[in-house]
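Structure tokens please, single chain.
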Amino acid sequence: MRVFRKSVALVAIGALLGSGAAQADAGGFEVQSLDGRGNNRAHPDWGSVGEAYTRLAPTRYADGVGQPVAGPNARYVSNRIFADGRQNFLSERDVSQWAQVWAQFMDHTFGLREDTATDASIPWDNDAALEQVRNDLGSIPMRRSGVVDGVTPHEQKNIVSSYLDGWAIYGGTQERLNWLRDGAKLLLPNNMLPRRQARGGDGSDAPVMTGPFGAINSGTGVVAGDMRANENATITAVQTLFAREHNRIVDRLPSHLSDEEKFQIARKVVSAEQQWITYHEFLPAMGVQLAPYRGYRPDVRTSLANEFATVGYRSHSMVRGDFKIVTQAARYTAQQLDTLRARGMSVAVTGEKVEIGILPRLLPFNPDLVDEVQIGPLLQSFGLQSENRNDEVVDEDTLRSIIFLIPGCVPRCLTAVIDVAALDVERGRDHGIAAYNDLRRAYGLAPKPSFRAISGEATEQFPADPELTPGDEINDPDSLDHVRPGVRRTTTAARLKAIYGDVANLDAIVGMMTEPRLPGSEFGELQHAIWKKQFEALRDGDRFFHGNDPALRVIKARYGIDYRRTLGDVIAANTDISRSHLAYNVFCTHPSVG
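Here you go.
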């Protein structure tokens, strides 16, 4: 079989990529659309940009249409359930920080809700019991998600495609891809992601990217396929890695091929690599057991479930915000190390080695950090430390109390605070997600009769304390004290009961996070069920999944380029870190895991 019969055919197809349909017979193989349309021939809209999330459980709106249900204040819940007490615990299965980094890369590939102008901010009381952070804004900013027009009850929309198709690298429109492309390659000045001014001018003509306070079309951030590539330096590094991988593949192709032919071959291989790593490394490391792959099924809808996007995939407890780089001191000059110290990083030189500690506050919207610490050691570092244990607590500095300075320090600097855990709770209400037990039923699981049955603890009663008024134990600052590592003075079940009263009122994400982990998995029963169902659908309903796409076999036979590469292989091929200095499976810090 010939891969290409006519260059002209592929060029013509490439010009149509933004039209929203997969194009057949591109001189030997089919070119997948950028926006997901046409993947399923019988249902061309399935998985495409702007489609409504699917939903397994009944909606839970106060008015049956779209009004969020009332519930305990989300920050109130966060302070009593998610607060870490400065004692985060690491994954018992030695899953590395690559899991949290890769999970975000996947999220930026197949899911993004739409913001509206409708305010849904979470009220904040600086004087509230258990509150330890000052928020001068008086609320946690939040806006309601966009919904599909004319659908009742309301259904939110996914504004990226629901496929593992390299979206984060290539984007979903021809206009964005045209800006990113440099012939057959992706634009990478100095082998790093392009800045907004890379094509001249002030950068206002560059594709929109996300800034600290919403979408921006100016500034000095990097530009990539997904608009969130600046959110933190870790995702910027991964975006850079796979842009380099695209260009590396292009360089391996014969010169007689046209730029368009080279580009589409590289795009197809990179997308398949993303799938291979996800299904052969990432999911096994997380302990997600899928049914065996039986081939493409056109009756399976890949579209993201609202319950997956809004509850199951919000594994923020796993996120460990500190990163430690250990590498050769000779990589850096004395001046460079002084610059890192001035940026707020800890730098310790011992003999020929240097250890660089990166605090959580240095990561958000700081693409310069990737170049400053060097991308190779940074990517290597993700595999050397374990992620946080996936439980009910969320890292304080990284996610639960992110402090921003409000511009204009007159007469004093004012602060705003973001609590991602509280936002997760409120977002579930915004999206009308079913209550915890109703969600369990939707995923074929038996409901839990009590809070202690959810958490697996022995009691849901507070310990007797004559100094406290009965009923006020939930507001006692000592209730979160650790009496020994991993064990608090009060059970999670007792605090859940005091907050919610009845299991029927429990927010799904709160109940999911408090479930004990299954043997051999990072997840409790409900979260595992949500991941299993969604990732099977993403695999089985994708006509371009690597196990179903014959073009990948032809590319390997003709050009010797195989998509079956580990993440360690990709890192070694695109940085100065040798393969021998990376674990075979970088998702695990211990060889027995995964």
